[in-house]
Amino acid sequence: MNKIRFNSPVVLGFAFISACALAAGYLTHGQSNILLFSVYKGSFKDPLFYVRLFTHVFGHANISHYSNNMILLLLVGPLLEEKYGSGRLAGIMAAVALITGIVHILLPGNSALLGASGIVFAFILLSSVTGSGKGIPLTTVIVAVIYITQQVYDGVTAADNISQLTHIIGGTIGAVYGLTMKRK
């Protein structure tokens, strides 16, 4: 056991908080998700409205939703945290949460948004632009084309209650951040 190291505090902390939110969701029959871990239209007078703009990314509908997001987050996140640092990665995660939350409440409809998919897709595109060298890597272009094509197709054809717009926003934030940092 002394060979296991705590290598990625932000990513591991996020996964742990999300696991606690998932457990709370099960224990409260989803009421904690409604109260804290999803974002939806609400009163600007409610202080939790502003909290949910950030905390909706911790909530997950079920263990499958949680597992799918955390596997990718735990696979890609530690490399990004090592490259960009814990503070910057936490900032990217907070930006994705806030922007996707605001966009969601501005859209028509009364659905709730929860889950880390936007962050996961930000990490995927951020990782694809991360690396040495000048110019945009061909792998980034291919990943972006496949990813955006799939999200647009799913948004038009699927009625699966998944917010493809959140994926696109998260992916865009990750790619823009990566390209901006690459120039510096």
Brief write-up:
The chain is an all-alpha fold and 184 residues long.
Overall helicity: over 70%
Q: Spell out the CATH superfamily.
A: Rhomboid-like
The CATH architecture comes to Up-down Bundle
Gap between N and C termini: 40 Å
The biggest beta sheet is recorded as: none
Low-confidence parts lasting 5 or more residues at pLDDT below 50?
A: none
The structural class is mainly alpha
The residue-averaged pLDDT reads: 87
Strand content: under 5%
**CATH fold-level label:** Rhomboid-like fold
Domain module tally: 1
Task: Tell me what you see in this structure.
By secondary structure, this protein is an all-alpha fold. The protein has one domain: Rhomboid-like fold (Up-down Bundle). Helices cover 70% and strands 0% of the residues. The protein has eight helices and no strands. The protein has helices spanning 9-27, 31-35, 47-55, 63-84, 86-106, 117-129, 138-157, 164-183. Helix 1 runs antiparallel to helix 4 (63-84) and helix 6 (117-129) runs parallel beside helix 8 (164-183). The longest helix has 22 residues, at 63-84. It is globular. The chain starts with 8 loop residues before the first helix and ends with a helix. The model has no long low-confidence stretch (mean pLDDT 87).
